[in-house]
Amino acid sequence: MSEKLRVSGINKYYYKNGERFKVLDSISFTAGSGEVLCLLGPSGCGKSTLLRLICGLDEPEDGLVRLDGKAVSCPSPAAVMIFQEFGQLFPWRTVLDNVIYPMRVNGIGRSEAERKQTAETWLVRVGLEGFFHVFPHTLSGGMKQKAALARALALEPSLLLMDEPFGSLDALTREGLQRLLLQIREETGSTILFVTHDIQEALTLGDRILVMGKEPGRILKVLENSVKKTGKRSNQEKSALYDVIHNLLGTV
User: Residues near 109 by Cβ (< 8 Å), separated by ≥ 6?
Assistant: First the structure.
């Protein structure tokens, strides 16, 4: 597996009332091409901040992020972020227009007709056929996240950053989107960084699991997800790995 992403020595601070607080402490890791890496940790450990640094929406005080060997200094369609909030779609644009607009802005597609075809293909792929011309306020939470996923994938990113995108959904909808995400990963070969605070979700999705602590945010351990890699699904194996992660988080 070739290296897609390298994060080296990231430190990040915030300032409040004249005081400096360290948010991320010496964060270093790599992600391989086509890998799903889950970032798992408690609220306040800097998971979302780390994603913003990786996609170029913010800058670290120290350290470097490299995507395909090139330093990341600003946002680009090569690394696209999907948020937890249902309001990330433009409310004044239809679902189809929400997918087309970023393609147009980034010059993806040779013509408007080609962009429309690509957008429709991805909307069908995520299960939104028949909802091309409706507005986001008419969609359920799960459908909004499907539309956001289609919009991201239409940009053909090599790195997909997902900030607890299924955290506010009911269990059945969440499980369906998890299956869909893994299917799409197999089809596209995109590398995925998936933020969650749910251990079971990390075990379902992650090829590796990066467990984070807080105050300041730091890496406690990077675990190979043997349950997913080997296809072994015994309750005993899953329980053992679950307990390892739970114990690590209990030290935070």
Answer: 103, 115, 118
Question: Lowest-confidence range among 69-73, 84-88, 203-207, 235-239?
Answer: 235-239
Question: For residues 157 and 148, what is the distance between their CA atoms, to the nearest angstrom?
Answer: 13
- DSSP summary character for residue 87: G
pLDDT of residue 86: 79
SS (H, E, C) 66-86: EECCEECCCCECCEEEECCCH
CA gap 42, 49 in Å, rounded: 13
Closest to 179 in 3D by CA, of 202, 204, 197, 145: 204
Residue 191 carries which DSSP code? Answer: E
Q: What is the DSSP letter of 88?
A: G
pLDDT for residue 19: 87
**Whose CA is closest to 164, among 68, 75, 73, 43?**
43
The DSSP code for 217 is B
- 89 vs 200: CA distance, rounded Å: 28
3-state secondary structure of 22: strand
- Kindly tell me the burial class for residue 155, based on how many C-beta atoms sit within 10 Å of its own C-beta (0-12, 13-18, 19 or more): buried
Question: Rg of the chain's alpha carbons, rounded to an integer?
Answer: 18
For residue 43, is pLDDT > 90? no
Alpha-carbon distance 233 to 119, whole Å? 36
* Angle subtended at Cα 11 by Cα 161 and Cα 85, rounded to the nearest 5 degrees: 30
186 alpha carbon, distance to own chain's centre: 16
- For the CA atoms of 80, 81, 87, 91, what is the dihedral angle to 10 degrees? -10
Q: Are 98 and 136 in contact (CB under 8 A)?
A: yes
